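Anyone up for a design puzzle?
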């Protein structure tokens, strides 16, 4: 029987938007709702069942305010935690305009080489070491899958080589085939946004870029603890 360390992880990037009416509530009511929400998120994060990282998107996008990156081993736990969050007083004023669902999986193309700090050979994620997160859903064209594996590997070798030029940017790739609308969710962590801008610009010139069907919306997120994240709401 496989141990828990060998299980593939369930990964969710849940984006929340607060109703403007919440900001017109008395300060004590807003604070009580934040305390309730923070308690639920913290309890789940400390339960040993789930890794929970919180990010603010206030000022980064108009359609989301914050994001919870949740990593566990069960779809049911994502649902159970979300229900508990929405049952708080703050949760009653929240919507989820985006929720990207995926799982970890051993890479098809990166077989031998592993970056320091990247997901290990079983695809286990170890996030949260960098201030900024850049995350987006990703879909390839059907023509990509019609190519032979050696041809795809050749294109990916160029793609991987470009990534090696930016070791300060950590890539977390998760797989959504059959689970969600996208095929992958890619999440890049870093401490200098300009490094990510330069990486993406260079990747646009790679052969693999010809086979991109969709890679938006793109979310720029700032890592904070749950209380500090909620305080950015007002």
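Challenge accepted. My sequence:
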């Amino acid at each position: 029987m496989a141990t828990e360390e060998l299980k593939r992880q369930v990964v969710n990037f849940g984006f929340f938007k607060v109703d403007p009416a919440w900001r017109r509530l008395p300060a004590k009511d807003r604070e009580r709702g934040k305390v309730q929400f923070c308690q639920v998120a913290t309890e789940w994060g400390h339960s040993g069942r789930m890794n929970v990282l919180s990010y603010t998107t206030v000022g980064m996008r108009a359609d989301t305010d914050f994001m919870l990156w949740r990593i566990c081993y069960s779809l049911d736990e994502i649902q159970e935690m979300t229900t508990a969050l929405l049952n708080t007083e703050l949760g009653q004023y929240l919507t989820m305009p985006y929720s990207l669902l995926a799982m970890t999986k051993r890479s098809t193309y990166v077989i031998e080489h592993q970056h320091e700090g990247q997901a290990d050979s079983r695809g286990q994620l170890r996030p949260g070491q960098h201030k900024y997160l850049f995350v987006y859903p990703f879909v390839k064209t059907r023509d990509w899958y019609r190519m032979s594996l050696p041809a795809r590997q050749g294109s990916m070798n160029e793609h991987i080589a470009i990534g090696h030029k930016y070791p300060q940017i950590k890539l977390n790739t998760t797989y959504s085939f059959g689970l969600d609308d996208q095929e992958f969710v890619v999440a890049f962590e870093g401490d200098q946004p300009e490094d990510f801008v330069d990486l993406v610009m260079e990747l646009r010139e790679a052969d693999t870029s010809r086979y991109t069907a969709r890679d938006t919306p793109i979310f720029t997120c700032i890592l904070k603890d749950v209380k500090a994240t909620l305080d950015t709401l007002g």
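A detail worth pointing out: The longest helix spans residues 27-45.
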